[in-house]
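Hey team,

Filing this mostly as a record. A colleague (T.K.) asked me to run one chain through the structure pipeline before their review meeting, and I want the input and output archived in the tracker in case anyone asks later how it was produced. No errors, nothing strange. Just documentation.

Input sequence:
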Amino acid sequence: MFDIQEELKKLPQKPGVYIMHDAKDEIIYIGKAIRLRNRVRQYFRPSHNEGLKKEQMVRQIERFEYIITDSELEALILECNLIKEHRPKYNTMLRDDKSYPYIRVTLGEAFPRVLFSRQMKKDKSRYFGPYTSGGAVKDTIELIGKLYSLRTCSRSLPKDIGKERPCLNYHIHQCMAPCQGYISQEEYRKKIDQAMAFLNGHYQPVMEDLERKMQEASENMNFEKAIEYRELLKAVKQIAQKQKITSSDGEDKDIVAMASDGEDAVVQIFFIRDGKLIGRDHFHVNVGSEDTRSQVLATFVKQFYAGTPFIPRELMLQEEIEDSEVIAEWLTQKRGQKVYLRVPKKGTKEKLVELAAQNANMVLSQDKEKIKREEGRTIGALKQIGSLLGLENLKRVEAYDISNISGFESVGSMVVYEKGKPKRSDYRKFKLRTVTGPDDYGSMYEVLTRRFSHGMKEQETLKQRDMENDYGSFTRFPDLIMMDGGKGQVNVALRVLEELGLHIPVCGMVKDDNHRTRGLYYHNEEIPIDRHSEGFKLITRIQDEAHRFAIEFHRSLRSKEQVHSVLDDIPGIGATRRKALMKKFLSLDAIRNADVETLASIPSMNEQAARSVYKFFHSPAVEGD
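Output structure:
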């Protein structure tokens, strides 16, 4: 039993991170402190007031833990990492998780390439960006390839020079074929230097050169070539026009400002690279009514720059933020050079911050209704379903469907929705092993048994390894199981759960004679649903998604010509052994019921192959595990 008052007495006067847990042992809040003892004790003092949101959080705390660090900076870094990992409900959180593209020049190679990259690694490459448009990055890389005829292949040069014929790009004059030794490293490097100058915004020399070549080609009556140069010139001008000069110092800086209406907030960020505005973006932030502008901006800076690899030299902020010195030190450490946090008070910089704030205000007003509609479609719809069934705090829903292929082959699908949205990383496919023919009830019994048996084993394994906060593919169980059907399918699910000792609500998605959803079957009665409600629409989406996922699996198996026998999936069983098994036993049921000794006695089989067959039919493992 965790005694909060006793544990408060044990808190050290050291910097660190504290982690609050609720009755379900879920992490609900993560914070940092210069002195853990002082900060954590504050939450439990009756006179302490940090607003309604924090009061609600404190009432839910069942226990806390903490990690001490050597400095406040280390505590800040750890706090950022833990918040990003666990996303606690009472922390102010970014709703967006975006990554930005870069242009990467692989200077560590003898013949460098210009590539698209989503990450900025600590290697010998030179990175340009980040950019806000992946399409614009690809267009720029394509243009650079045409301008400078750089290689795009992944051949290891100069080791592979002359080993293969030059590719198509050489023949269409978009590569100088360093793979054939047609250009020296020195000459190629000059082209790379020109490309990097272009990426740094030096467009004028390129435009002048293209203008000259276009005129020469035209004078020589080579009109096709002149048109080619004209199109290249047009493309360069388009890219040049997108780069608006915003300052003359050529520095990298981000401009950050926000707008809030007390319930929602939007943070707008302008990206300035080499003195040019290359793009902008906005982020929606969950806030409480007691959160100040300074707190929200500080939270944004910590979460955003914890996740982006590029740190600019300067952050221009709307106002001073909490822990500014520690945050600046952390950003300096990440960048490897001094980073400045500034709040401009006058001049061009102050106007840029004001412009960012105006954009944030505009986005907030435009998107507020859109956000509410989206939440109505997802979280709101899930609440409607929970209200119909008398269930609270629905978060995770799993739905299942069976698709018959042919003969004794059937497949099952499992789709997962969390907070009303599909979580495709948790979808699973099942190849049926114990059912012959189109037996939907038997197939569903096998699928659910394998799914939850596997999950229980994963939970036990993680518990033994003291990894309760971790989870495998099946460890997390749903708050509600939705079956594609009525009473029969629901009873199959309830039977499986009873046999495994699990208690999870199960409902059926009942369809009418026209194969349209008409209601939910729950606790032996059919519950009608308003066909115009968001809850009804979510049920339909879940049902359609489970069906689609099963059908796609069915088609993929057929396209690979894998539908003729589940025996093909057993390790060590090829065509010869498969034929011998079917000749001896005549049916899958007979093979399934045979022991290892009987299996091993068949011509062409040995004990290892026999054990493989036996294990396949008696293991709860799932396809893809």
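Quick notes for T.K.: DSSP finds 19 helices and 20 strands in the chain. Residues 347-389 form the longest helix (43 residues).
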